[in-house]
C-alpha cells in the first residue's frame, strides 16, 4: 500500500484529537467525577450508574432523530464541513464548560455532559462520512483502522497528563483538590481536541456531493423519503445496519459504562485510571492490526472475530470479583474495540453511494445511536432490578449473537452496486 496522503493523514489526526474526549470524558475522568458528585449528594451507587445510563440514552435519542435529516441536507455541495464545524464547536465549548460547574451539582454535570456528547458524536457523524472523500475503496480498511489506532495512541498523551495531575492531587503532591484536578483534565481535553482538528479543517474537503439547488431543505426531505421508499434497492446497506444495530449496542455500552461498572465493583479510582490507560495503549496497535488483517482475510471475517471476543467479554464480566479480573476484561476489550468500530465504518462506506454518504451515515448514526439507547437502558434497569451491575453486562450477550447472525447475510461490498439518490 502506498504512503498515506496529506488528506488521509489530516482526516486520521482528527481521531488523534477527538479520542481524548472519548477516554477522558466518556470513559474515565468524567464518570468518576460525576459518581463522586452524586455520592456527595446522597445518590446511591446503583442509582447514579442508572442515571448516567439514562443520560446517555437521552442524547443518543436526540442524535438518532436528527442524524439522517442533517445528513441528507449536508450531502449538498459545501454543507458537510459546516455541519461538522457546528457540532465540533458545540462539543469543544461544552467540554470546557464542565470545568466550571460546581463539583457537587451532579444534575447540572449530566446536562452539560449531554451537550458535550451531542457535539462530539454529532461531529463524528460527518467526520465518518468524510471517509468517502479522503480515500478510495481499496484503502478504506487501512485508513479507517489507522485513524482509530492513532486515536487510541494519541489520546494517551492528554490522558497521562490528566491522570498524573489527579493522582498527584490525591496524594497531596499538588496543592489542589482531586475535584480541581479533574476539572483541569476537562480543559486539557478541549484544548487537545481543538488543536488536532486544525489539519481536518485545512486539508479535508467534500469531493462527493449533490449540486446545490433551490429549496434545499424541502428537497432533502424528499430524498430522505425516497430512500425509505426504495430501501429494497439498498438491501445490503439495510442488512448491515441491522447487524450493526445489535453488535455495536454492546460495544458502545461497555465502553461508555465500564468505568462506572468498575467503580461499583469497588475498584479504586487510581486502579481504574491506570487500567484505562493501558487499555488505550493496547487498543491502538490492535486497531491497526485489524485493518491489515481485513485486507488479507476480508473485513467481514475480522468483524466476526471482534464480535466473538465481545461475547467472551460479556460472559467473563458476569464473574468479575477482583481488580485482576477487571484487568483481564479490559485487555480483552482492548484487542477488539478499535478494530470492530474501524472496520464497521469502512465496510459501510464501501456499501453506500458516495454522493449520498452523509445521508447514509445519518442512517448509520441512527442505527448506532438507537442501539446506544437500548444498551445503557438495559444495563440501568437490570442493575436497579437485581441490584447487580454485572447482570446488565451479561445480558448484552444476546445482542452480539443476533448481530453476528444478521451479519452473515450481508454481501461483500465488491458484489454490491449502488446508485446515488437524486
Oligomer: single chain
Q: In percent, how much strand structure appears in the residues?
A: under 5%
The structure class reads mainly alpha
Tell me the span between the first and last alpha carbons.
34 Å
Mean pLDDT: 84
The CATH H-level homologous superfamily: MFS general substrate transporter like domains
Give the number of domains: 1
Radius of gyration, taken over Cα atoms and rounded to an integer in Å = 20 Å
The largest sheet, given as strand count, sense and whether it forms a barrel, is: none
Poorly predicted sequence stretches spanning 5 or more consecutive residues: none
Determine and state the CATH class: Mainly Alpha
- Overall 3D shape: globular
Which CATH architecture?
Answer: Up-down Bundle
Percentage of residues assigned to helices:
over 70%
Q: Helical region count? A: 17
The CATH topology is Growth Hormone, Chain: A
Number of strands: 0
Keywords: Membrane, Transmembrane, Transmembrane helix, Transport
Membrane topology: Multi-pass membrane protein
Organism: Aquibacillus halophilus
Main location: membrane
Walk me through the topology.
Blueprint lengths: L5 H22 L1 H12 L4 H30 L5 H18 L8 H24 L1 H4 L5 H31 L7 H18 L2 H6 L12 H14 L5 H30 L4 H29 L1 H20 L4 H29 L5 H30 L2 H6 L2 H11 L15
Helix pairs in contact: 1-5, 1-7, 1-8, 2-3, 2-5, 3-4, 3-5, 3-10, 3-11, 3-15, 4-5, 4-8, 5-15, 7-8, 7-12, 7-14, 11-14, 11-15, 11-17, 12-13, 12-14, 13-14, 13-17
Summarize the structure.
This protein has one domain: Growth Hormone, Chain: A.
Amino acid at each position: 500500500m502506498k504512503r498515506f496522503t496529506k488528506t488521509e493523514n489530516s482526516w486520521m489526526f482528527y481521531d488523534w484529537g477527538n479520542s481524548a474526549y472519548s477516554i477522558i470524558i466518556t470513559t474515565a475522568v468524567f464518570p468518576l467525577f460525576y459518581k463522586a458528585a452524586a455520592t456527595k449528594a446522597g445518590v446511591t451507587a446503583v442509582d447514579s450508574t442508572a442515571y448516567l445510563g439514562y443520560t446517555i440514552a437521552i442524547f443518543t435519542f436526540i442524535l438518532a432523530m436528527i442524524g439522517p435529516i442533517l445528513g441528507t441536507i449536508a450531502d449538498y455541495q459545501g454543507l458537510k464541513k459546516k455541519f461538522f464545524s457546528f457540532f465540533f464547536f458545540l462539543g469543544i465549548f461544552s467540554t470546557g464548560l464542565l470545568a466550571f460547574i460546581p463539583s457537587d451539582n451532579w444534575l447540572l454535570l449530566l446536562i452539560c455532559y449531554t451537550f458535550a456528547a451531542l457535539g462530539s458524536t454529532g461531529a463524528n457523524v460527518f467526520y465518518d462520512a468524510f471517509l468517502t472523500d479522503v480515500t478510495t475503496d481499496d484503502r478504506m480498511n487501512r485508513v479507517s483502522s489507522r485513524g482509530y489506532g492513532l486515536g487510541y495512541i494519541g489520546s494517551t498523551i492528554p490522558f497521562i497528563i490528566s491522570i498524573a495531575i489527579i493522582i498527584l492531587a490525591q496524594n497531596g503532591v499538588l496543592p489542589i483538590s482531586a475535584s480541581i484536578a479533574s476539572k483541569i483534565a476537562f480543559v486539557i481535553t478541549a484544548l487537545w481536541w481543538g488543536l488536532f482538528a486544525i489539519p481536518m479543517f485545512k486539508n479535508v474537503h467534500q469531493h462527493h456531493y449533490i449540486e446545490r439547488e433551490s429549496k434545499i431543505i424541502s428537497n432533502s426531505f424528499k430524498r430522505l423519503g425516497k430512500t425509505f421508499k426504495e430501501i429494497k434497492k439498498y438491501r445490503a446497506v439495510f442488512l448491515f445496519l441491522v447487524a450493526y444495530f445489535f453488535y455495536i449496542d454492546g460495544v458502545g455500552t461497555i465502553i461508555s459504562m465500564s468505568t462506572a461498572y468498575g467503580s461499583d465493583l469497588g475498584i479504586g479510582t487510581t486502579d481504574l485510571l491506570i487500567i484505562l490507560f493501558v487499555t488505550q495503549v493496547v487498543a491502538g496497535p490492535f486497531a491497526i492490526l485489524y485493518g491489515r488483517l481485513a485486507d488479507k482475510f476480508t473485513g467481514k471475517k475480522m468483524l466476526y472475530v471482534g464480535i466473538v471476543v465481545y461475547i467472551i467479554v460479556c460472559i467473563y464480566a458476569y464473574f468479575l470479583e477482583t481488580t485482576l479480573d477487571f484487568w483481564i476484561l479490559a485487555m480483552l476489550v482492548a484487542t477488539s474495540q478499535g478494530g470492530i468500530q474501524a472496520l464497521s465504518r469502512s465496510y459501510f462506506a464501501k456499501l453506500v453511494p458516495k454522493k449520498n454518504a452523509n445521508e447514509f451515515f445519518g442512517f448509520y448514526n441512527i442505527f448506532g445511536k438507537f442501539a446506544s439507547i437500548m444498551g445503557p437502558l438495559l444495563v440501568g434497569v437490570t442493575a436497579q432490578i437485581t441490584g447487580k451491575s454485572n447482570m446488565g453486562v451479561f445480558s448484552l450477550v444476546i445482542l452480539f449473537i443476533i448481530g453476528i447472525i444478521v451479519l452473515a447475510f450481508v454481501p461483500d461490498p465488491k458484489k454490491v452496486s449502488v446508485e446515488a439518490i437524486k
